[in-house]
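Why does residue order matter? Because the sequence determines the fold. Keep that principle in mind as you read this record.
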Amino acid sequence: MDAIGTTTLTRQAGLMREMNVIAQNIANISTAGFRREGVVFSEYVQRMEAGPSLSMAHGNGRAVDLSQAGLSATGGTFDFAIQGEGFFLIETPDGQQLTRAGAFTPSAEGALVTPDGYRLLDEGGAPVIVPPGAGAVSLAQDGTLSAGGAALARIGLWQPADPVSLRHQAGTLFSADAVEPADGAVLMQGFLEDSNVEPVSEIARMIAVQRAYELGQTFLDREDARVRGIIETLGR
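Structure:
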């Protein structure tokens, strides 16, 4: 394949990745705690033995939008929302992971777990336990969880030590090479944070990417027709 085709195909591959990310964002408009993602394009320059260097676009990087979303009142005793920076720390089979989705329920043993059964961890990295029959449960803005007037645990808020290491795993879960305590945020009981995906801007972005992809495909089709025409002419 010639340099023009190679350059265009790398651009098309990046646009296809971006379209898939946009589709995932749109599918999670109503998912509590979901963080919008985007694709980061970079330039890859390949030196050619003859002629000028070849510049290609790579859309392999993914960026997570950590901007605050709105809070919806649910009235649920174990629905928690973060106002400010930070994540809940969750214990999963793949290790500790981060999430902004704060819908928890007590297990049979009293551990607060996500809908997938993953345990919520406190500021010391231990599971948050609410003993059955402990009484009315309340959450202070500093994360202190109490039942019947007695403090049970303090829910920790965490952030990646290196923001660049934050990686989306699945749904509302993220991983990082290392985490550290997050300061300055408050916890709200009886609320859930919405998805931070903006439907109108995301659909507009999808249309722009689709048009850019169609333009690239038209260029490839015309280039293919041009090459075929040259081959047919030389073959006569």
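The chain has a mean pLDDT of 86.
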